[in-house]
Amino acid sequence: MKNFLKGTGVALVTPFHKSGNIDFSALEKVLEHTISNGIDYLVVMGTTGESATLSKDEKMAVADFVIETNQNRVPVVFGMGGNNTQEIVNSIKSYPFDGIDAILSVCPYYNKPQQKGIYYHYKTIATVSPVPVILYNVPGRTGANIDAETTLQLASNFNNIVAIKEASGNMTQIMKLVNNKPAGFTVISGDDALTLPLMAIGVEGVISVVANAFPAEFTKMVKLCLEGNFAKAKTIHYSLIEIIDTLFEDGSPGGIKAALQILDLAQNNLRLPVVKVNKSVYLQLNNLITNFLENNK
Known about the structure:
Elements: H1 2-5, E1 8-11, H2 24-36, E2 41-44, H3 56-70, E3 76-79, H4 85-94, E4 102-106, H5 115-128, E5 133-137, H6 139-142, H7 148-157, E6 161-166, H8 171-180, E7 186-189, H9 195-200, E8 206-208, H10 215-226, H11 230-247, H12 254-262, H13 279-295
Parallel strand pairs: 1-2, 1-8, 2-3, 3-4, 4-5, 5-6, 6-7
Helix pairs in contact: 2-3, 4-5, 5-7, 7-8, 10-11, 11-13, 12-13
């Protein structure tokens, strides 16, 4: 567990046909693109996978397809989070977990729980989960922050809470985690644009959106950071930073879906309430990606 989380995970998209049905052919294409280009592990049914708009049966179907297609080539992390603790417990108890190496569980959203509530929420999940648990802190989406003290308490008290995906953008909070975390606990970047500076202060990997489109380049940057070669890593960081910023300019995963269409990997279809990026953003992405590919022949 510790080894594969120290690297690049890809937050997989869920491709759709124009009809809205899951496009499993495109999903296979994206899977092969990411695995063959060196990503360290797959993250299924996160925010980027539009998990909020998929039914329970669809989530199971996507997970089963990924596991079957992956053929144990890389570890698989499955998103199992929400704002109803008991519902998550029920889902964990009913899920077989064959081929799943860990779960990624987002901080409860909308409810705006106190830190005590967040602690007991994750304690309950950790107690029933048969696989390691990765916390996911993304207050910009959930409306609630997992404080450093809460994360450190969970990491110290539960051996199967093994990591946190940190997407708060709060450098002081993340440094506190890195400096005080117990041995074996991994702090993971949840922001593509901040991955290099976060790794410079001790973060050990990333769960990436842009790696759906550019897995080879982003994985190489992360490996260089792990090796302490920030000079070379910085070159890759700056070659991708405009693309990364534009991916999130008009909502995510709209940006990465547009990029995957430009790269002929998947159609640019999403499920409501998420819609396609506007035309100007699409054209900007097209120009940036075209120039990137031309400069990296």
